[in-house]
Amino acid sequence: MKSHTEDDVRRVLTRRGRWGFSEIAFWLVAVATLVFMPDRHLILNEIAIIALFALSLDLILGYAGIVSLGHAAFFGLGAYVAGILAQQGIGNPLIGLAAAALAAAILGLATSFLVLRGSDLTKLMVALGVALILGEVANRMAWLTGGADGLQGVNVSPLLGLFEFDMFGTTAYAYSLTVLFVLFVLARRVMASPYGLSLRSIRDNPLRARAIGIPVNRRLVVIYTLAAAYAGSAGALLAQTIQFVSLDVLAFHRSADVMLVLVIGGAGYLYGGIIGAVVFKILQDYLSDLTPQYWLFWIGLILVLLVLMDRERMVSKARTLWKRTANRLTHRAEPLATTRTAREI
């Protein structure tokens, strides 16, 4: 019985780990925007950064059930680490990205033991407190961070020594999109593994997960550290692509905005953060032009409507429709390929 169960689990995880036509099409469309939307690279770069930030929050909220309103702490730390390194002459973007991810991961590991204790309300307050403390530290250490004036003189070297960061955002968007894709593939692989399956069981019922022998605290510490590294990477991308860092990267609204992104796109679904980032940024850009003073009101109204109309059901129907369309296209493509092969023979 045990071997059959293990085989079934292995079969399910293998099926989840396969790339479907819809996923491949999604990323091909994303790459196509580099060529067909050259005048929108600046906003697309922002979307890619927000999507990575949302992905980092989804790792702990959607898959581990850890609620956080202080996720901006890791985002801001990553931004300042990458910005300070570039200001001090270490302008290689990949080095800055790695250093930012490492610094955020260390902070995540150090604070995970505090955040994982107590009730959900305690976790919210501790995470928020960490972000507020970092914001005050950054404000006080003006000699290093620039304080309220912001960190200026952030000079980033050409990417791979070849591609300059231009004012049109082409290199910046290509860089951010590549980092987003690489980290997304890693997160997808993690969540399609037995470790990811154990995280879901912890999210659904931590007491039962502990009773069957899953090391709950160790699993949560690891995913919290990984999510912090992802958020730090997103902060580094922001600092390197706009070449400026301010106290705003540690502000509370950063954590609130990324939570809204997940509400729109859906938590517990890796593409939810990306889709939510696209929708949120487009709405923000359009509504701020339409009504600069009241755009937040309209976004709030849309969120209320999503709740009233049962967003989960809408998202489920949209996924089903997308998969059906992808399957139809795949089935249509197979006879064409067979016919061509027969003609060649």
Automatic annotation (TrEMBL):
It holds the Pfam family BPD_transp_2. It is a multi-pass membrane protein. It is found in: Cell membrane. Keywords: Cell membrane, Membrane, Transmembrane, Transmembrane helix. Its main location: membrane. The chain crosses the membrane at residues 20-37, 49-82, 94-115, 121-138, 172-191, 258-280, 292-309. This is Branched-chain amino acid ABC transporter permease. The lineage of its organism: Bacteria, Pseudomonadati, Pseudomonadota, Alphaproteobacteria, Hyphomicrobiales.
